[in-house]
């Protein structure tokens, strides 16, 4: 019996009394299927590309990926048919150049590897389904059909698995290399902006994925603990997102890891520089964990991008100089001039000692006096207001201020500016600038 296509139809009668001819009949029907495929190569390859594009969203909107799909589809399909005909050994077949380029493009775009795996599973399913449809009209011999179907499924699957594994390695290598190149490029652009160098704004924004024409909140994130580098970096980025969420903001931060123990980020504020002080205060009070965050002030434009970072970094230097581990979130706006005084710690320690005298002693009783005087100044030199802020009786504040004046040997209103600055420095830097009792 012969089909309209000119290829013989294999029936049960063809195998009657000749069981040893089964292998030959299976090979023959597969040969007919592959011959049909070669005759329709462009059409079948185009159908496969159309299916990949319709079912994988990453491919549909990416013209370079589409170009490579079209360039490699016919070659890939013909190689699969050659493997089914036993003209080519599976182990000798590697990925085509378009397939390799697609793996690289996917890696460079940070498209998940699952998209590549999905593409090859769709390819496998499409090829096997078409072959089985051809088999159904070319064989009415149950034994031949079963063996041919198994052989088609096995060979196509083995071919796809081998290619997919090789491309997975290509993807991972390119992803790592691309991230290094991209990170280096991003870091170079950020460094140029922070250094005040002239930059081409539009390309820089495109590389960074971040807009300069808005308000920015610069933050520095770091930890004093040691741990796995990848875990630390992921922890920093998660902390940056948590900080943003705690402020009720929605823009994606620009994040840059500096090393295994420190990262910096800019949180976009859009056209509004007003932060919710209640949320910020609550965030400071609830912040836990090993990541410490220093925060600059909201600043606008490309110059503000650099300035808010510098403020956050100055706040970080204050925390580092303080030798204290009690900080979680520290704001540059709270530190005032203290951020300018950490470059020469020996000089600032001597100055604090000169100004505070006995009040520079590092003990709890003196710390209580320093805190009282600091609050007294902060509340405008009012005994009543200071008492309310300190949750104590007004007469107790009067007593402490007199005791402080006795130790200083002068009224607290003399050299008030120096006293206020020294108290602020002692508050933030603690033991780093205080001496023995």
Automatic annotation (TrEMBL):
<dbReference type="InterPro" id="IPR025736">
    <property type="entry name" value="PucR_C-HTH_dom"/>
</dbReference>
<comment type="similarity">
    <text>Belongs to the CdaR family.</text>
</comment>
<dbReference type="Pfam" id="PF13556">
    <property type="entry name" value="HTH_30"/>
</dbReference>
<dbReference type="InterPro" id="IPR025751">
    <property type="entry name" value="RsbRD_N_dom"/>
</dbReference>
<feature type="domain" description="CdaR GGDEF-like">
    <location>
        <begin position="206"/>
        <end position="315"/>
    </location>
</feature>
<dbReference type="InterPro" id="IPR042070">
    <property type="entry name" value="PucR_C-HTH_sf"/>
</dbReference>
<feature type="domain" description="RsbT co-antagonist protein RsbRD N-terminal">
    <location>
        <begin position="45"/>
        <end position="186"/>
    </location>
</feature>
<dbReference type="InterPro" id="IPR051448">
    <property type="entry name" value="CdaR-like_regulators"/>
</dbReference>
<protein>
    <recommendedName>
        <fullName>DNA-binding PucR family transcriptional regulator</fullName>
    </recommendedName>
</protein>
<dbReference type="Pfam" id="PF17853">
    <property type="entry name" value="GGDEF_2"/>
</dbReference>
<dbReference type="Pfam" id="PF14361">
    <property type="entry name" value="RsbRD_N"/>
</dbReference>
<dbReference type="InterPro" id="IPR041522">
    <property type="entry name" value="CdaR_GGDEF"/>
</dbReference>
<feature type="domain" description="PucR C-terminal helix-turn-helix">
    <location>
        <begin position="369"/>
        <end position="425"/>
    </location>
</feature>
């Amino acid at each position: 019996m012969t089909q309209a296509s000119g290829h013989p139809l294999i029936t049960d009668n063809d195998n009657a009394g000749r069981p040893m001819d089964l292998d030959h009949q299976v090979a023959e029907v597969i040969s007919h299927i592959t011959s049909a495929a070669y005759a329709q190569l462009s059409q079948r390859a185009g159908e496969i590309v159309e299916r990949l594009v319709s079912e994988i969203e990453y491919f549909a909107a990416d013209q370079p990926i589409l170009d490579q799909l079209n360039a490699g589809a016919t070659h890939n399909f013909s190689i699969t048919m050659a493997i089914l005909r036993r003209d080519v050994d599976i182990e000798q077949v590697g990925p085509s150049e378009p397939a390799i380029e697609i793996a690289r493009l996917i890696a460079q775009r940070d498209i998940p590897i699952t998209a590549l795996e999905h593409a090859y599973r769709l390819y496998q399913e499409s090829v096997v389904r078409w072959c089985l449809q051809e088999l159904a009209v070319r064989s009415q011999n149950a034994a031949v059909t079963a063996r041919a179907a198994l052989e088609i499924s096995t060979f196509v699957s083995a071919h796809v698995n081998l290619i997919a594994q090789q491309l997975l390695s290509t993807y991972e290598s390119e992803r790592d290399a691309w991230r290094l190149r991209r990170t280096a490029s991003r870091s170079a652009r950020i460094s140029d902006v922070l250094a005040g160098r002239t930059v081409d704004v539009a390309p820089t924004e495109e590389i960074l994925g971040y807009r300069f024409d808005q308000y920015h909140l610069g933050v520095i994130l770091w930890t004093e603990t040691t741990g796995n580098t990848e875990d630390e970096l992921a922890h920093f980025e998660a902390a940056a997102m948590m900080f943003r969420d705690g402020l009720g903001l929605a823009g994606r931060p620009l994040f840059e890891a500096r090393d295994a123990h420190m990262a910096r980020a800019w949180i976009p504020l859009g056209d509004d520089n007003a932060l919710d002080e209640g949320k910020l205060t609550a965030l400071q009070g609830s912040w836990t964990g090993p990541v410490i965050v220093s925060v600059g002030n909201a600043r606008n434009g490309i110059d503000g991008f650099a300035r808010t970072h510098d403020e956050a970094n100055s706040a970080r230097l204050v925390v580092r100089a303080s030798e204290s581990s009690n900080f979680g979130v520290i704001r540059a706006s709270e530190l005032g001039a203290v951020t300018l005084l950490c470059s020469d710690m020996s000089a600032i320690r001597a100055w604090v000692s000169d100004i505070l005298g006995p009040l520079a002693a590092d003990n709890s009783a003196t710390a209580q006096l320093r805190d009282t005087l600091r609050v007294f100044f902060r509340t405008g030199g009012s005994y009543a207001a200071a008492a309310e802020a300190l949750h104590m009786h007004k007469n107790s504040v009067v007593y402490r201020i007199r005791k402080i004046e006795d130790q200083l040997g002068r009224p607290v209103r003399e050299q008030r500016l120096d006293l206020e600055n020294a108290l602020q420095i002692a508050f933030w830097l603690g033991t780093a600038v205080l001496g023995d009792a």
